C-alpha cells in the first residue's frame, strides 16, 4: 500500500480517469477527497470507495472558481491536518476547428483545464510549503505536447498545463514539493466517447482509423492512467519532478502511418 496514510485530493473524480484514480488511491491506502462539480457522480465514487473499505469524502466544487478551490484546500487541511497529494484531474474538451470554436467554448476550455490547475496550485502550495513536502499531479495530454487537428484550444490549455507544472516544480522543489503532469493518449472515457467519437458519422470506423496511430493498436483504460498517477504520487517517484509523463501507447513516439 504505497499511499498508506496519505491524504489526497482528486478533482473530477466523479467519472473516467478521476474515478479510476480515486479507487486505486484508496486501494493503495490513501484517504481520498473526491472533488467534482457533479454531486451525484461524486457521491457514487465515494460509495464505491466505501464499498472497498476505503476512506473518502465528497466536496462539490467548480475548479474554475477560486473561492471553491480555496474552500476545498481549507476543508481538507482543517479536516486532516495535511495534504499529501493533489491530483488536478478535472477537464473538458471540445472537438472543433479553431475558427468554429466559440468564445464561450474557448473560455470554458481554458478556465477548466488551465485556470483550474493554476487555482489548485495557488491554494495548495502554501500548505505544502509549510509541510515541506507534497506531490502534485496535473492532468495534461499528448495534445499538450503536439498539435492535433480539431483540438487546437484543448492543446493550448494542455500545453499550458505542461509548462505551468514545470515552472511550479522549479519554484517549489526546494520545499520538498514535486510537480508533474500526466499526458495520456486516447483513453476510453465518457469524455472521449461523447466529445470525440460522438462527433463522428461512423464512430466505429473513426476508432479503427485512430488506432492506426498507436503502436499498441488499442485505446488506453482509465485504470492504466491511474497506475501512473499512483506512481507519481508515491515515494517511488521521490526523484521525479517537472516531468510530462506519457501514458499514450507509444503515440508521441510515432510519426503515424505514413509508410502504410
Description:
This protein has one domain: Rossmann fold (3-Layer(aba) Sandwich). The chain is built from eight helices and seven strands, in the order E-H-E-H-E-H-E-H-E-H-E-H-H-H-E. The chain is of the alpha/beta class and 260 residues long. The termini are far apart. It is globular and about 50 Å long.
Average pLDDT for all residues: 94
Here the CATH topology equals Rossmann fold
Order of neighbouring strands in the sheet with most strands: 3-2-1-4-5-6-7
- What is the CA-CA span between the terminal residues? 45 Å
Structural domain tally: 1
Outline type? globular
CATH superfamily: NAD(P)-binding Rossmann-like Domain
Q: Write down how many β-strands occur, each being a DSSP E stretch of 2 or more residues.
A: 7
Low-confidence stretches: none
Class from secondary-structure proportions: alpha/beta
Our Rg estimate from Cα atoms comes to: 18 Å
Overall CATH architecture? 3-Layer(aba) Sandwich
Top-tier CATH class: Alpha Beta
**H and E string:** EHEHEHEHEHEHHHE
Please report which band the strand proportion falls in: under 5%, 5-15%, 15-25%, 25-35%, 35-45% or over 45%: 5-15%
Q: Helical segment tally?
A: 8
Q: What percent of residues adopt helix (DSSP H or I)?
A: 40-55%
Largest sheet: 7 strands, parallel
Amino acid at each position: 500500500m504505497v499511499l498508506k496514510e496519505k491524504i489526497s485530493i482528486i478533482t473530477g473524480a466523479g467519472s473516467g480517469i478521476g474515478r479510476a484514480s480515486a479507487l486505486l488511491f484508496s486501494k493503495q491506502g490513501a484517504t481520498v477527497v473526491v472533488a467534482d462539480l457533479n454531486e451525484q457522480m461524486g457521491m457514487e465514487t465515494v460509495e464505491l470507495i466505501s464499498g472497498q473499505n476505503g476512506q473518502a469524502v465528497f466536496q462539490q466544487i467548480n475548479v474554475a472558481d477560486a473561492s471553491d478551490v480555496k474552500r476545498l484546500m481549507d476543508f481538507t487541511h482543517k479536516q486532516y491536518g495535511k495534504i499529501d497529494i493533489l491530483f488536478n484531474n478535472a477537464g473538458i474538451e471540445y472537438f472543433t476547428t479553431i475558427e468554429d470554436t466559440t468564445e464561450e467554448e474557448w473560455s470554458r476550455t481554458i478556465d477548466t483545464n488551465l485556470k483550474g490547475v493554476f487555482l489548485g496550485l495557488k491554494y495548495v502550495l502554501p500548505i505544502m510549503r509549510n509541510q515541506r513536502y507534497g506531490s502534485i499531479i496535473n492532468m495534461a495530454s499528448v495534445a499538450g505536447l503536439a498539435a492535433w487537428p480539431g483540438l487546437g484550444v484543448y492543446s493550448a490549455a494542455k500545453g499550458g498545463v505542461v509548462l505551468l507544472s514545470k515552472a511550479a516544480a522549479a519554484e517549489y522543489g526546494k520545499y520538498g514539493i514535486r510537480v508533474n503532469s500526466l499526458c495520456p493518449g486516447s483513453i476510453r472515457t465518457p469524455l472521449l466517447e461523447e466529445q470525440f467519437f460522438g462527433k463522428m458519422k461512423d464512430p466505429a470506423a473513426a476508432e479503427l482509423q485512430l488506432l492506426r496511430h498507436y503502436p499498441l493498436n488499442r485505446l488506453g483504460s482509465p485504470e492504466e492512467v491511474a497506475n501512473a498517477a499512483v506512481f507519481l504520487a508515491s515515494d517511488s517517484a521521490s526523484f521525479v519532478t517537472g516531468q510530462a509523463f506519457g501514458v499514450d501507447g507509444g503515440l508521441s513516439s510515432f510519426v503515424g502511418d505514413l509508410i502504410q
